[in-house]
Amino acid sequence: MEDTNIELILLDLDGTLLNLESEVSATNKKVIKKLMQQGYKVAIATGRHYKEAKRVTSDIDNLVYITTNGSYVEDAAGQEIFSATLEMDSLLSVIDILEKESNLEYALFTTEEVLVKDQHQFLKRIVNSVQSPFKNLPSEEKEKIIVNNELGKPLQTETDLKDYVCDKESAIHKILILGEVEELPRINDEIAANVGTGIEVTSSGPDNLEINAADISKGRALDLLTQYLEIPLEQTIAFGDSANDLELLETAQTAVAMKNSELEELKEKADIIAPTNVNDGVAKVLTELLDIKIKY
């Protein structure tokens, strides 16, 4: 199963590279570092904010970052490769729709921070989300995580987000919407009907929607990155588990879906089904595919 043509490895974070504690396991870390020592290039490809992505991978040097679903890309030296923000008209139209909904939280992602109306309520949504590793903790433990922001999110509170982005002319890379699973399809339909073609809507889980500028995806970012690095797409492999990984897996030469993915469409596109994220699926596929000798 050895494939010596691969030069660039792309890794989603949540549900893929990260375990249930939102950490890169020792095994995954060891394999990634070994591959980079041998000359492979590794890029994180995530819907997370750039600072969050850097934080959870801080002890792995020389990574490339595709963040906020491909709207911001940075090379291993920290140089910006690509940045795409939402048009102001589209952004304000989405905010108007969201402000009419009382049973959701949303956040606006800039390059530097995540803007929210109520930090406590936003973090509460995350801690109790379908995919959260903390959702079954006792309420007092969850409250501690929320109050201390132990999730490490770079949050800035602004009570009126619409006024804020208008006054500051803020460049917004992504809108993250957190809501009830049964309500989000209706909200998605309303956004599609009223905002038009200036946005791209995807998801990284059943209780969220993620909105970027039109034509933005991890797949497009991969295409741009290979041109920048002068690596053919034919020499790429990508790992993912969610809807926002679909175009990434479609674009890469070798597509790897995680066994823990609940998205059958993603698995159907995959060339390989990796073991789950809690069983070091990334490391196991890469060590076999690239014939890496690792002592665990």
Automatic annotation (TrEMBL):
Family matches, as Pfam families? Hydrolase_3 (PF08282)
Q: Report the GO molecular function annotations.
A: magnesium ion binding; phosphatase activity
Quote the Gene3D superfamilies the UniProt record gives. 3.30.1240.10, HAD superfamily/HAD-like
Q: Which SUPFAM superfamilies match?
A: HAD-like
Q: Which InterPro entries match?
A: Cof (IPR000150), HAD-like_sf (IPR036412), HAD-SF_hydro_IIB (IPR006379), HAD_sf (IPR023214)
Cellular component GO terms, alphabetical: cytosol
Record's protein name? Cof subfamily protein (Haloacid dehalogenase superfamily)
Source lineage: Bacteria, Bacillati, Bacillota, Clostridia, Halanaerobiales
